[in-house]
Every structure is written in C-alpha cells, then in structure tokens.
Design brief:
By secondary structure, the protein is mainly α. It contains three helices and two strands.
C-alpha cells in the first residue's frame, strides 16, 4: 500500500510539473528566433537526457526480472529433480502397505504451510 501511494504521489508530481512546463511554454515570448531556437534546443536536450535515463532504468528492470525468472526456473528444476528422486525411493524401497498407512496419516497444515503426520490411532 505504501508503494502504491508513493507511485501515485510521483504520478501526481509529474503531472503538476508537466502542467507547469506547459503553462510556462504558453506564456513564453521570445525577442528573437535565435533565442527561441536556443530555448527549444535546451528543452530537447533535457528531454533527451531524461529519455536516456528512463531507457537505462527500463533495461535494468528488464535484466532484474530476467535474472529473477532464471533463478526461479533453476529452483523449479531442482525441486522437480528432488520430487522425482523421492518418488523413485518411495516406489522402490517402501512397501505398499507401509506407504498406504502413511498416506492415511499425512495431512497438510495450512497454518504452517507444510505436511504433517496425524497421531497414530488404533485404526491405523
């Protein structure tokens, strides 16, 4: 929520600055064509620098997202390898009746976000 408020504040600030620049542009009167050209050239240079800065920032963000995605994909591949290994161990080394008893006891604890085993009872 704070990030959203900051973003909105920046947007409003940018709009205010943009309107102020537009107002100044409308009120400007030049004594010569040369003065007008110099002023417009300065504004163009300022906007060009801003554009380059924004493009660099955009590329940085794209690179960060790309590297984060690659890390997540690598982590996912590792988890899948572990899951396959565990599945093979279960299938080949744990007897079926023992596996069935464990499956009856296992439950997912949503508060702790993990799997747990229920208490043993006389039925299991």
């Amino acid at each position: 929520m704070i990030a959203e408020a900051d973003r909105r504040h920046r947007e409003v600030q940018q709009q205010i600055e943009q309107r102020e620049e537009e107002r100044q542009t409308m009120n400007e009167t030049y004594t010569s064509t040369k003065e007008e050209v110099e002023d417009k050239r300065a504004k163009r240079d300022k906007l060009s620098k801003l554009l380059k800065k924004l493009e660099t920032k955009k590329q940085d963000i794209i690179e960060k997202h790309r590297s984060a995605r690659e890390e997540l994909e690598a982590e996912q591949r590792e988890i899948q390898k572990q899951a396959k290994l565990f599945q093979l161990i279960i299938e080949n080394f744990i007897p079926n009746d023992e596996r069935d008893r464990l499956l009856k006891r296992v439950q997912f604890d949503e508060r702790q976000n993990c799997w747990t085993l229920k208490e043993l009872s006389k039925q299991t």
